[in-house]
Design a protein that fits this description.
By secondary structure, this protein is mainly α. It contains 18 helices and no strands.
Length: 416
C-alpha cells in the first residue's frame, strides 16, 4: 500500500474507533437476535443458534491467524469489516423468515470477523512502541466495554421497536467501522517487527503457533486457562439471557440493563488493570479469575434485578482486568513472526471449548435448574484461577517484566 508519514496518536485512535464501531454493531446485532429467538423459542434453541452461528468461525480462525502473519493486515482488516456488513444486512433481511436462515448469516458474519482480531493486533503492535503496548491493550478493552454499554442500550431499545430495524442499524455501524481503517491504511507501521525470513507452505504455517508454544510456558499457560474457561463460560450469553427473562422476571429492558452493567464494569476493570505495575500482572490475573468466579456464583443466588446488577458488575469488573491483561501476558514472550497465529490459536481453542460448552449447557438447561448451573460454573472459575497460579512457570514469571517492554526477536522456533 502507498504510505505516508504519520505523527501523534492518530494511528491508535483510528484503530480504537474502528473497534468501537464494530463492537457496537456486534452488540446491537446480538441483542436483537437473542430477543427475537427467545420470543419465539426456548433458551435451548438460542444455544443451538449460537452453536450453528459460530462453528464456521472456529473452523477458519487458525487460517485467519496465519493470514495475519503472512499478508498485509491493513487489507485484511478492511475486508473483514466489509464482509461483516454484508452478512449483518442479510440477517436484517431474513430475521422474520426463520431463525435458521438468520443463524446461517450469523455464522458467515462470524467467519468474516475472524480476520479482524489477529489483523488488528498486528496492526496495533505496528503503530505502538513496545513499552506502551500493555496500556494500548488495556485501552482496547475499555473501548470494548464502552461499546457494550452503547450497543446493549441501543440494541435493547431498538429490539423493542423492531429487531429487523436494529439489525439495519448494526449494518450501518459495521460499514462506518471501515472508514477509520481506510484512513489509517495509507499510514506506515513504524514499530512493525520483521517476520520470518522464509515463507513456508500455508499448511506448515498453520501449525507454527502450536510448535512455538512448546518453548513458551507462559503463553502456553494462557492458552490452557482459556480452554478451561471456555468450558465454563461458553454459555455466558445464554445463561445471562435465560436468567434475566426467567428467574429475574424481566425482558429486553432487564437484559439490556445487565449488558450495560457488564460494559461499565469492564471499562472500570480495564482502567484499573492499566494502572497495575507490570511486575504484578500475573498475580492480578490470577486474583481476577478467582474473584470473577465468586461473583458469578453469587449472581445466580440473587432473585431480584437490583442485587443481580451489582453482582454481575463485580464479576465483569474482574473480567475487565482479565481482558486487559490477557493479550499482554499471552504475547509477552511470543516472537513477532507468529503473533497472529498464537493469538488465533488462543481464540480458536477457547472458542472451540466454548461451543462444546454451549452444546452441553443447551442439554443441561432442559434437565437442570439454571441457578445450579450458574453456581457450579462460578466455583469452577475459582478453582481454575488457583490452579493457574500454582502451575505457573516461575522462571517465566521472573522474566515477564523485561519481556513485556522489549522488542521480540524472531526465533528459530517460530519458523521451524
Amino acid at each position: 500500500m502507498i504510505t505516508r508519514p504519520d505523527t501523534g496518536p492518530h494511528g491508535t485512535a483510528r484503530l480504537w474507533a474502528a473497534s468501537a464501531l464494530s463492537s457496537a454493531s456486534t452488540w446491537v446485532m446480538q441483542i436483537s437476535l437473542f430477543i427475537q429467538v427467545l420470543r419465539d423459542s426456548s433458551p435451548a434453541a438460542l444455544a443451538a443458534v449460537e452453536l450453528i452461528g459460530t462453528v464456521p468461525a472456529l473452523a477458519f480462525m487458525m487460517v485467519a491467524g496465519a493470514l495475519a502473519d503472512r499478508f498485509d493486515v491493513r487489507r485484511l482488516a478492511v475486508g473483514s469489516m466489509v464482509a461483516q456488513a454484508v452478512c449483518v444486512l442479510g440477517m436484517a433481511l431474513f430475521l422474520d423468515h426463520g431463525i435458521w436462515i438468520t443463524a446461517a448469516f450469523y455464522g458467515l458474519q462470524g467467519l468474516g470477523n475472524t480476520l479482524w482480531p489477529p489483523a488488528r493486533q498486528q496492526w496495533l503492535y505496528g503503530v505502538v512502541a513496545p513499552e506502551s503496548r500493555p496500556a494500548a491493550n488495556a485501552r482496547l478493552g475499555s473501548v470494548s466495554g464502552t461499546m457494550t454499554v452503547v450497543g446493549a442500550s441501543l440494541g435493547g431499545a431498538l429490539a423493542g421497536w423492531s429487531p429487523a430495524g436494529a439489525m439495519a442499524v448494526a449494518c450501518a455501524l459495521q460499514v462506518l467501522a471501515a472508514v477509520p481503517l481506510l484512513a489509517q491504511a495509507r499510514r506506515p507501521m513504524p514499530y512493525a517487527e520483521p517476520g520470518a525470513s522464509t515463507r513456508e507452505p500455508l499448511r506448515k504455517e498453520l501449525t507454527a503457533g502450536l510448535r512455538v508454544l512448546r518453548d513458551l510456558p507462559l503463553a502456553r499457560s494462557v492458552v490452557w486457562i482459556g480452554i478451561a474457561w471456555g468450558c465454563i463460560g461458553g454459555a455466558y450469553d445464554v445463561l445471562l439471557a435465560a436468567y434475566a427473562t426467567g428467574r429475574l422476571g424481566g425482558g429486553g429492558a432487564v437484559l439490556g440493563a445487565l449488558y450495560v452493567t457488564d460494559g461499565i464494569a469492564v471499562i472500570i476493570g480495564t482502567v484499573l488493570a492499566a494502572r497495575i505495575a507490570v511486575r504484578r500482572h500475573l498475580a492480578a490475573y490470577t486474583a481476577a479469575y478467582v474473584f470473577q468466579g465468586l461473583a458469578w456464583a453469587a449472581f445466580f443466588l440473587a432473585g431480584h434485578p437490583a442485587p443481580a446488577l451489582v453482582l454481575l458488575g463485580l464479576m465483569r469488573l474482574a473480567g475487565g482486568v482479565i481482558i486487559a491483561l490477557d493479550t499482554t501476558v499471552l504475547l509477552a514472550t511470543v516472537p513477532a513472526a507468529v503473533r497472529g497465529r498464537v493469538s488465533s490459536l488462543h481464540m480458536t481453542t477457547y472458542g472451540a471449548m466454548a461451543r462444546v460448552s454451549l452444546a452441553l449447557f443447551g442439554v443441561l438447561l432442559t434437565v437442570c435448574d439454571i441457578r445450579t448451573i450458574g453456581v457450579c460454573t462460578g466455583a469452577a472459575s475459582v478453582v481454575l484461577g488457583a490452579l493457574w497460579w500454582l502451575r505457573r512457570d516461575r522462571e517465566a514469571q521472573r522474566a515477564y517484566p523485561a519481556a513485556v517492554t522489549a522488542h521480540q526477536p524472531v526465533t528459530a522456533a517460530a519458523t521451524a
